[in-house]
Amino acid sequence: AKHSGDSRHLKFADGMAQRSITMMNMENDLRHALNRDELELHYQPKVGFDGRTVVGAEALIRWRHPRLGLISPAEFIPLAEDSGLIIPIGRWTLATACQQMVEWRRRGVAPPSVSVNVSVRQFNDSALIETVRETLARTGLPATCLDLEITESVMTGDVERAVNTLTTLKAMGVTLSMDDFGTGYSSLNYLKTFPIDTLKIDQTFVRDVGQNPKDTAIVATIVSLARNLGFNVVAEGVETEDQVALLRENNCRLFQGYWVSRPLAVADFTDYLAQAREG
Ligand code: C2E
Ligand code: CA
Ligand code: CA
Ligand code: CA
Fold it and tell me: Where is the EAL domain (predicted)?
């Protein structure tokens, strides 16, 4: 189980009524979570071909709920999106990840960049660009040290606007990753117009790579597509040595997943970075 104790009843509540009461409480609690300092970011490394060189880190949010314990983003991000709380939460996440990078750089252990997840609602918020610009200015983090992970669902809205937003971010020096690549609804057409740097192969394709010939074919195809278009490609959810071997065989050179490390709290990730530097 991902987390212990009470939080199980969020998933397995006895019927809708009870569940919606729980959700209402949760929305209320989430409203205060920011002010009460209950949100935290964990970090997961992205590594190079050797499986050791850290090429980046993804910030993943967790909610340390006073009664329910550590709640995964899968449980509260949808709620945050529906309620609009994702906007202040997203600002906090961006600021916290940038500040953390500045701190790691000061200590000489920083990865080249930190990746921050941006959900559709945040992406469509007219203040996004200003928030990013302001956060970089205030923290002093160079824009090239910030990577934003978006999903194909940003394509379901106003495409021209989406391209403009991405182009503006890109012009600032921020890099862009397409998260969960291959699971969305959009066509390949956007790959021509989106100024993307990296494709992240969704873990559903990585899971059975080498076992299921179709998944292996999909992975191989995404890798060659990415390379032909000049994008980096990261395999996510890499758990086993076998998956790594198959991914390497198919020219995938960047890995993220439990095989490298689980997402770690700041202190543990800082240790990880220091050790990675020592080699
Ligand atoms: P994601 O962006 O696709 O993140 C990858 C998820 O896979 C993370 O789950 C990570 O902990 C998990 N993971 C990493 N390696 C492995 C592995 O080897 N095996 C398996 N089975 N899982 C692995 P997590 O942290 O629970 O996050 C879930 C989702 O919540 C994220 O999916 C992302 O969509 C969203 N999320 C997380 N943090 C944020 C945030 O700060 N802002 C926004 N808007 N969304 C976030
Ligand atoms: Ca992500
Ligand atoms: Ca992903
Ligand atoms: Ca995902």
Answer: 23-277
